[in-house]
Amino acid sequence: MSSPKLVQGYEVVIGFETHAQLSTQSKIFSRAPIAFGAEPNTQACAVDLALPGTLPVMNLGAVQRAIEFGLAVNSHIAERSIFARKNYFYPDLPKGYQISQFEIPVVQGGEVSFFLEEGKETVRKTVRLVRAHLEEDAGKSLHEDFVGQSGIDLNRAGTPLLEIVTEPDMRSSAEAVAYAKELHKIVTWIGICDGNMQEGSFRCDANVSVRKPGAELGTRREIKNLNSFKFMQQAIDYEVRWQIDQLEDGHAIQQATVLFDPDTGETRAMRTKEDAADYRYFPDPDLPPLVIGRDWVERVKSEMAELPRVMAERFVRDYALPDYDATQLTQSKAMAAYFEAAAKACGQPKLASNWIMGEVSRRLNEAETGFEKILTFAGPYYLGALIKRVHDQTISNNAAKKVLDSLWITEIAPPITPEIGAESVVDDLIKEMGLKQMNDSGALEAIVDQVLAANPKNVDEFKAGNAKALNALVGQIMKASQGKANPAQVNALLKAKLG
Prior knowledge:
- By secondary structure, this protein is α+β, with helices and mostly antiparallel strands.
- The protein folds into 3 domains: 11-295, no CATH class; 306-432, no CATH class; 441-498, Arc Repressor Mutant, subunit A (Orthogonal Bundle), CATH 1.10.10.410.
- The chain is 41% helix and 20% strand.
- The protein has 16 helices and 17 strands.
- The strands form 4 sheets. Strands 1, 2, 6, 7, 8, 11, 12, 13, 14 and 15 form a 10-stranded mixed β-sheet that branches.
- Helix 6 packs across helix 7 (323-329), helix 13 crosses helix 15 (468-480) and helix 14 (456-463) packs antiparallel against helix 15.
- It is elongated.
């Protein structure tokens, strides 16, 4: 493993705590609904309000989702775990404590791997997980600055969360964001969380510290509630610079919880950071230990869809793709399905991978949409047919991009017989657009001879050792052929004639 890149002589150390809101229909200890956007306090029942005499009842669906996550990241699923009361006072915490897990979490250990570009290299990174535990969310304080009042909305109180905690394994903001994106992919892929960061379904807290190489871990500050990957990177970068400046000026770092202000691009301290002792954890007397039998775990495992890491391994094995390609193509189920259909349609998986990660992804980013939206136009069978025509040299790469542009703006219904129907559509477009590549060696040789005769200066420069002169000649030939000449044939003919 290469040494971590230093910032002003300091090593950056980052750990993450992520709250993933579980995709159940009701809360973790009550039957109240959890639909987003409801009127304040319309989705809070007696249990959520902590009214006297109420008792929590465990939501089976929340436990099952925790098991699924543990299986997805190679964790140990505890056969017996315990719920605890985490005591602290917030206006939006009705009970005065939060039901969470402390000594024995339901998910223990595990890891998340991803690829990161470092300079010209693509490096595989792995972040170790400490645990993932079940807990309930608090409510929400609403501050109306223009009237100087605050309100409490308890709709979110009791919403089921899975808190995923890492070791301090990350060494840069780029690495932290790559980890967060991979974790986001996993929880949305297996369907335990909708991943909506704007609605608070996937919230990350980054524990950031700096140290001189080889020194003990520095004092960390926790950046709370990062709900965008862009702000996540900005917040960590600012915090790193701030801590280094403080240390360089001779100040000690105080452990604290901080918030990131995207308007100023700065973090600001909210409160000193609590430790476990401050919360006075003790087992919740109203909830028995959570017991998960091996048969339950095996049943959940048998019912789970193919995981992204398993699918990526299959893409490497079955399609001979590089690890990087396989990982990128399994960013979502829709992208993976699009690739497989295109690869089978054209028989050229690596070419399909290149086009999907390149031209197709670029167009999707510009349109601010995803692979789910392009299954009825510019779909995988059309892309497969297009790649076939590039591979058999019917059209050039540049011409294929023009055909893809045409497919992109024309909503074509999926062909009844995908492979045959798609090829027919693509062939008709190539013909209509006049993009068929010139492969007639006699006609091409005549154009080459004409260009050589008309450009003696370039010919002499090439023979004198100026390699760039060849590019100028190729450009003239492509122009004379209206872009239809086969570039490979052009180069071969030129080199043969020029010796």
